[in-house]
């Protein structure tokens, strides 16, 4: 098999086996409480009638799809609840390739490493579009790379790993480029609740038959292990996506969907705002320490990650392991995210020990 | 897309919308309680530390894989926990096709309808092997159909829809045929706890690098909606299967895996035996009524289903809908399971109203 298993688990295992205390900044696991209603929903479900323990509808609990549809302003028939955004992206990419209007997926470089893996699994070809130094994606560059071979343009906003947030004009132009090339814009928006810039714009804001939006509750509700995500498909593509979902997974897991439904219904905006503010503070703390360490870095406009570059310390797996052993901080190698950030390291700020990690880095590199 | 969405949901929707009381015998949803420890495990998990709400290992919780490995007598490294047997079968079939040793999957006729759908999704070709009138699969017939084009032989024992249970000699010979054709035997054993004949033999009993066994807790613990299953792979194939699992689903749902782990550890053999005995009684009740109705039928040696044939009433979707409206019993059309049982109807005995349904059928057809 050609496609590669993403490196995350390997780096986490190395850190777990290290002979010293290590601050883990590898994975995007939120370190805060899920909504209280989520725990309540799960506890209530544990006492439910036996019917509730059997197959949910393949496309997801109807009430959950209705809540999502209402919040996102789309028709419930367009919503498929998936096993996290991972499956949502898999279905979206398959939908793009199954249209037989090109076999190329335009990805950004740097890239979230699951995207090329999924592309190869599905028999597509990836083509990389470079982003600007600050992580912004210039639609004009995307247009240059698009052609009749393009099946889809796949973007992630707020972005992992760059922290870039694409504004409304960018999203509108990306959809237009997809339309002009008989392709789809696939917009993965799992970090949408973590926009520090106020400029985030969902692709759902652009009405078109040429875009699919994926999302999940993993980050917004701090439940990466529940595996509840969704995709919003154009009407013409939703039936085939449901079929593939059914043939691969039959359905998603009902306990997780029930708990998410309760949490979605009963959690107010403060929960989301508080966690976003917490992350924004961590960005300030971490980047201040990077200044002290003399590092170059991008200040994220959204998401969980900071990319940093230290002198003479390229972002290889070897250096990541060295940093674990010698500084006690575990990040991700930049070269795991394509070629454009090979010299960089990615740090996930979802740990209460951000300040400690920053101090360790400052001391190590000073 | 060529592959077809299985009919189950469509028939259930028709029954739900009927203008009269209908006994549902469509889907294989157990109608009994899950193990008490399963509910307890879920309630405990609802109060767990936040770490427990994040990604489980992609291949499944280590303790759950260890329990499975120990019970099945295999190495833990061979076990991948999946989103139900649905995903386990998808991974197993992909593993067979990815070996590039043939693109044909030998399926039985009658067939569980998800198998041809998955075969087409994965770009394989299905070839059907007829079974005997009583549902038994003659390995000599399988050998006649096997060739260098064969990627895998896919069997289900106890069988859905025939109720056949394949004995040890059969399983041994099926593995040998796979070996002789550089193919894999894929054995889907989700009904293994519902063997009324005492002759069930898992393919795990035959040591070979040429077999994959899939299973789930959906039927044995009455939790089809939890989506916890597993596959046992040969060492040489397990890494690629884990990669595909990671690229499609990232991981399974942790609440469901936790609850299953607790239930697996704390549930004694009586739970499983009681439910098997209940089903065996229902088989007797239902087949006795079929005798009264003058129907032809196969007495199942295992599993949840009875295939029955009524005079001048072929197993079409039209007739299934007529039976819902006129007799108040919902079954599945035999022609949904291939061509060999086109004249038959399949009834799932997972309802407390088996006797009532049987009486209705007897009255309708008498």
Q: Count of DSSP E strands of chain A?
A: 13
Uncertain segments of chain A are: none
> What's the CATH H-level superfamily name of the largest domain in chain A?
Type I PLP-dependent aspartate aminotransferase-like (Major domain)
CATH topology of the largest domain in chain A, anyone?
Aspartate Aminotransferase, domain 2
| Helix percent band of chain A | 40-55%
The major beta sheet of chain A can be summarized as: 7 strands, mixed
Structural class of chain A: alpha/beta
Q: How many helices of chain A does DSSP assign? A: 12
Radius of gyration of chain A: 20 Å
String of helices and strands of chain A: HEHHEHEHEHEHEEEHHHEEHEEEH
Could you characterize the architecture of this molecule?
Two copies of one chain form a homodimer. Chain A has 366 residues and is α/β, with parallel strands linked by helices. Chain A folds into two domains: 8-34 and 270-365, Alpha-Beta Complex (Aspartate Aminotransferase, domain 1); 54-266, Type I PLP-dependent aspartate aminotransferase-like (Major domain) (Aspartate Aminotransferase, domain 2, 3-Layer(aba) Sandwich), CATH 3.40.640. Helices cover 40% and strands 15% of the residues of chain A. The first copy, chain A, contains twelve helices and 13 strands. Chain A has helices at residues 8-16, 36-45, 62-72, 84-98, 114-121, 139-145, 168-180, 235-249, 254-266, 269-292, 317-327, 354-365, and strands at residues 23-24, 79-82, 104-109, 125-130, 150-156, 184-188, 211-216, 229-232, 296-297, 305-309, 329-330, 332-333, 345-348. In chain A, the strands form three sheets. Chain A has a seven-stranded mixed β-sheet, with helices on both faces. In chain A, α5 (114-121) links the parallel β3 and β4. In chain A, α2 crosses α9 (254-266), α4 packs across α8 (235-249) and α10 packs parallel to α12 (354-365). Chain A starts with 7 loop residues before the first helix and ends with a helix. The model of chain A has no long low-confidence stretch (mean pLDDT 95). Chains A and B meet through α2, α4, α5, α8 and α9 of A and α2, α4, α5, α8 and α9 of B. Chains A, B: One of its GO terms (biological process) is amino acid metabolic process. Chains A, B: This is Aminotransferase. Chains A, B: It holds the Pfam family Aminotran_1_2. Chains A, B: Its EC number is 2.6.1.-. Chains A, B: Keywords: Aminotransferase, Pyridoxal phosphate, Transferase.
């Amino acid at each position: 098999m050609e496609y590669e298993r993403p490196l995350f688990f390997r780096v986490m295992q190395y850190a777990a086996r290290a002979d010293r205390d290590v601050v883990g900044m590898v994975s995007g696991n939120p370190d805060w409480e899920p909504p209280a209603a989520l725990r309540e929903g799960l506890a209530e479900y544990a006492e439910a009638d036996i019917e509730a323990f059997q197959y949910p509808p393949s496309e997801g609990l109807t009430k959950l799809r209705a809540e999502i549809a209402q919040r996102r302003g789309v028709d419930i028939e367009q919503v498929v609840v998936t096993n996290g955004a991972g499956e949502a992206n898999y279905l979206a990419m398959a939908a793009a390739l199954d249209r037989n209007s090109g076999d190329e997926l335009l990805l950004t470089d740097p890239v979230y490493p699951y995207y090329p893996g999924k592309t190869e699994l599905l028999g597509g070809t990836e083509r990389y579009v470079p982003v600007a130094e600050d992580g912004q994606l210039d639609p004009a560059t995307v247009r240059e790379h698009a052609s009749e071979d393009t099946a889809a343009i796949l973007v992630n906003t707020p972005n992992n790993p760059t922290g870039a947030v694409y504004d409304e004009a960018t999203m509108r132009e990306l959809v237009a480029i997809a339309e002009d090339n008989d392709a789809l814009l696939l917009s993965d928006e799992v970090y949408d609740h973590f926009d520090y810039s106020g400029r985030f714009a969902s692709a759902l804001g652009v009405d078109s038959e040429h875009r699919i939006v994926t999302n999940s509750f993993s980050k917004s509700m701090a439940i990466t292990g529940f595996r509840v995500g969704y995709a919003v498909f154009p009407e013409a593509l939703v039936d085939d996506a449901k079929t593939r979902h059914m043939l691969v997974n039959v359905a998603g897991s009902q306990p997780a969907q029930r708990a998410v439904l309760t949490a979605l219904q009963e959690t107010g905006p403060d929960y989301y705002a508080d966690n976003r503010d917490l992350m924004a503070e961590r960005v300030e703390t971490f980047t201040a320490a990077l200044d002290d360490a003399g590092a170059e870095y991008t200040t994220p406009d959204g998401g969980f990650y900071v990319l940093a570059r230290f002198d003479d310390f390229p972002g290889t797996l070897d250096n990541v392991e060295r940093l674990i052993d010698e500084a006690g901080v575990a990040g991700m190698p930049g070269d795991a995210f394509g070629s454009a950030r090979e010299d960089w390291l990615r740090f996930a700020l979802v740990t209460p020990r951000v300040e400690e990690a920053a101090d360790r880095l400052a001391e190590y590199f000073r």
